[in-house]
Amino acid sequence: MNGRRCVSLQYCNYKRLPHGAPLRYNRVMNILVVEDEKQVATLIQKGLEEQGFCVELSHNGSEAFDLATTRQYDVIVLDIMLPGRDGLSILTNLRRNRNAVPVILLTARSELEERIEGLDLGADDYLTKPFYVEELISRIHAVARRTSGDQLSILRAGELTVNLITREVKHQDRSIRLTAREFGLLEYLMRSPGRVFTRTQIIEHVWGYDFDPNTNLVDVYIQRLRKKIRGDSDDDLLETVRGVGYRFIKL
Question: Can you give the residue range of the structural domain that contains 202?
Fold first, then answer.
């Protein structure tokens, strides 16, 4: 196998893409990985995060379905065999509820009928185990390109609209001018409404370096964002969770 290691049910590792390889998108993509084998899931997460994705893990089908229906993801990587709800049940209910989030199924080689059934139910792609993580990355980009319409390019919360392509931000009919860091911070929080992010998580994902516990950088930027978004209105969509961090209020 050319010395490369791949993800399997029994053994898992990842292969890094060339150092500095650029992503095809100039924004963070949120990925939900649903895999009950924790070692496999963790190493998939590590491989994806090294390529700039924001990854959330779930090891249980019932929990994964709750996440998929209450949070916004660009792509869901979904194993078929799961405790709780199985992957096909999750997919069926997402499509029944008109949730069009792209789904990539993970299947065993012996599950041909389930792969066909998954595609018929609305899966966008599938990978059979074992597989290389770089192949998964390519599949993620491919399904994101195919579905890169309004769902992936526009974030909305009440009267706040953020266009991820043009980087235009509007509240009601008022245009808001943001710096690159302010825009990145707003996007990061908006993509997971209701979720509390620590200052360390925000620094790592928005600024890309280790957190200095003595800096108030995040607090300063939150205050700037809050002021710009509110303008003359009473809307305060950025909530401070005392002693923990910040979250974008889920409307």
Answer: 152-248
CA dihedral 105, 109, 110, 116 (to 10 degrees): 40
Note if the bond before 130 is cis, omega within 30 degrees. yes
Q: What is the pTM of this model?
A: 0.54
Q: Is 181 helix (H, G, I), strand (E, B) or coil?
A: helix
CA angle, residues 196, 153, 231, in degrees to nearest 5: 60
CATH code, domain carrying 102:
3.40.50.2300
| Residue 102 token pair | 């792209």
Strands 238-241 and 245-248: antiparallel
pLDDT at 167 over 50: yes
Kindly state whether residue 74 falls inside one of the protein's structural domains: yes
* pLDDT score of 51: 84
Q: What is the pLDDT of residues 110-119, one digit of tens each?
A: 667 777 888 8
